[in-house]
Amino acid sequence: MIKLRNFFKSFGPKRVLKSLDLEVNSGEIVVIKGKNGSGKTTLFKAISTLDRPDDYDVAEIDDFDIVSNSEEVRSRIGFLSHNPPFYPEFTGLENLKFWLDLNPRETDLTYAKELLAKVGLISFGDNFAGYYSRGMIQRLGFAMSISHSPTTLLLDEPFTSLDDEGSKIIKEHLIRLKEEGCSILLSSHDKISFADRTLVLEDGALK
Amino acid sequence: MNPITVLLKKELMVEFRSLQGIIPSALLSFMILMSLKFSIMDSAVIEKSGILWVSILLTGLGLITHTATREMERKTIETLRLAPITRYELYLGKVFGSMILLWILSTIIFLLFVVLFENVFGDEWLTAYIVVLIGCIGLAAVGNLAASSMTPLYGGWMLTSLFSIPILLFTVIEAGIKCTDSLIEGSSDFQIALMLLCLYNLVFVTGGAWLSEISE
Questions:
Q1: Are the Cβ atoms of B74 and A74 closer than 8 angstroms?
Q2: By C-alpha distance, which of B76, B10, B148 is closest to A81?
Q3: Where are chain A's structural domains?
Q4: pLDDT value at B135 more than 90
Q5: Of A203, B45, B145, B214, which has the fewest CB atoms closer than 10 Å, so is most exposed?
Q6: Residue in B147, B124, B136 with CA at minimum distance from that of residue B77
């Protein structure tokens, strides 16, 4: 569950997020739309603990404060950036296994392979990620974001560069995760038919 | 698996599969040693170990800066920062990864130095080599601390060295030079200098881990 109240974030003199309020309940999918530069990525990075907010009254993931309990928060969120980072010297499977090994949940190679199969990458699992197409990287990034069974998913433009099959796979996963009680916040420029709510980020606030 | 071990393994795998850091650093150290070999005629300098340590300092910091910049440019630093691990585990994972890479680089530099400068250590070459490996711990600790704070800035690759060199020069490098020079001269200062070197390493590793944790 995500809860933000009176949330502020600036870059230099520019206030990107101004007194922003947001609540995403368990088992809910909320979509954020907004023009380029409206602050969607800034919001995702601040919630994910990658950036620190300037000020807030409430900023919690599952009732854990995102600043004072950042380690606990990080174990509960899955984050997919619009340009997922990866190690080109690692295979797809090794990238996924590396991420899983950094998480406290005990996993093995079979689990990592199952996850790759779920996003349609199993036949490319032993190929170096440096040779992956943009869409394949997006699928790998999505597999990493859901791999540690997070309670909250933050997906910054998750459908970017995906083909129809990839979009369908991710959509099916999101619907399943929502049914399992995961709180999902995603940004997109397209209409998301399966979303519960759509909000627009404008002038630093959600409308 | 312990996160520090996971990070250490990652650091080594990325480097061994790309060889983008070790090989250029080794070549640069060869060029530095060759330049000094042909430009310094003063036997008082040649018969000491300062040249060895300066080569390790410059190319070692280059190697650390390279690995940190690579992480920043690929944004894989975000993956690491999103992992539910403490900041000191992240720091120590990087320090130990860099330390092993520095050990490999220092081994190459040490061999080049022994060959080019006619083994000034004599029978004590193995002890001198171990001292060099110990010195790499402090170099990795300061280098990574500087790299983690400087690489996000413009010109961070240069700032890392500018920040690290003054700190390392009057601590780890000075103690390292005193150690290896006392081996060459056969003086009794060796033990004190070695203790000082170990103390600096301890301060830098623990201090770096502490600073990483509180900077969160």
A1: no
A2: B76
A3: 2-206
A4: yes
A5: B214
A6: B147
Q: Is the CB of residue A80 less than 8 Å from the CB of residue A155? A: yes
**A3, A23 contact by CB (below 8 A):** yes
Contacts B78 to A, Cβ<8 Å: 50, 81, 85
User: Residue B132: what residue type?
Assistant: V
Distance CA B131, CA A157 (A): 52
A136 or A108: whose pLDDT is higher?
Answer: A136
**pLDDT tens, position by position, A35-74:** 998 899 999 999 999 999 999 999 999 999 999 999 999 9
Q: Do A75 and B84 touch (CB under 8 A)?
A: yes
Superfamily designation of domain A2-206 = P-loop containing nucleotide triphosphate hydrolases (3.40.50.300)
Q: What are A175's two structure tokens?
A: 């619907």
Q: What is the mean pLDDT of chain A?
A: 93
Chain A residues whose CB is inside 8 A of the B10 CB are 87, 98
Beta strands in chain A (DSSP E): 2-11, 14-24, 29-33, 58-61, 64-65, 77-80, 152-156, 183-187, 197-202, 205-206
Q: Which residues contact A195 (CB under 8 A, 6 or more apart)?
A: A29, A30, A31, A186
